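pasting for ref
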Amino acid sequence: PGVDAMVKVDSLVGGATITTIDDNAGGAGYIEGFQPEIKDGPAKGESYAVFTIDYKISGTSVSHKMNTFGLTALDIDGTGSLNEFDQIDLGPGAKATYNASPTNISLTQVGPGAYRGINADGKTINGIDTVSRANMFTVTNANVSSFTLKMGTVKTNNSQTSRQFGIYMKGLVYQRLVPFRL
């Protein structure tokens, strides 16, 4: 309450297009989440959308810092020829956690406070599955007023498909917690 999330599309890479900016229809996922539907590009390789989300005091252009902040990438799945990925950048000092076992993603740190989770098992989970902790990761930091997301696919064929992504604006608890360390 009292805070607006302003979503900006920074870029579309590799021929990606956004078919729905925030699909909360039909009860899939979390209503508090950000759930864009992204169509991948026509060629093999990576295609993705880059978003910046800024928190503002409602009805103003004044930035609002979240004292403690967790962001969870949900339902990172794939197929035999396509792997979804989510990349979250919460800035220096951010930490990532994920489920140790089982895990269906590969998590890497790609910069200070930036983490990328990519599907590793090539299996699709229907809808936005908020229960399969093996297909998600959480990034946390303090005093966050803005962050960047990359959401897209890596594929080995030329077919195109639309995929729904899910980012939950809270951290989740994992049964077999593994803090990500370099």
